[in-house]
Predict the structure.
Amino acid sequence: MPVGKRFYAINLFGIIFAKGDCSEIILNHEKIHTCQQLETLFIPFYLFYIIEWIIKLILYRNSYKAYKNISFEREAYLNQDDPEYLKRRKAFAFTRYIFSSK
């Protein structure tokens, strides 16, 4: 199901679709997205995600760079290596990354 060469997994409504087996890091990344989806009540997550991607696309003029700078993705990528992150994660933690970029 994941589309493109750069994407190995996608999380839709808390269900992870992958091209194959997922490492612990990929699973943790997707579990972070599940938390984000739950706290934003799913549909708003996707609306915010798309709106933020469009804004970042205008800013960066590069679709992959726009994707990597979406606040949801920044939180997930920066914390995917930490198996304990979800235990100490505060609600709406992704908001810390809205105005930051990489």
Observations:
- Strands lie at 9-12, 15-18.
- The chain has a mean pLDDT of 94.
- The chain has five helices and two strands.
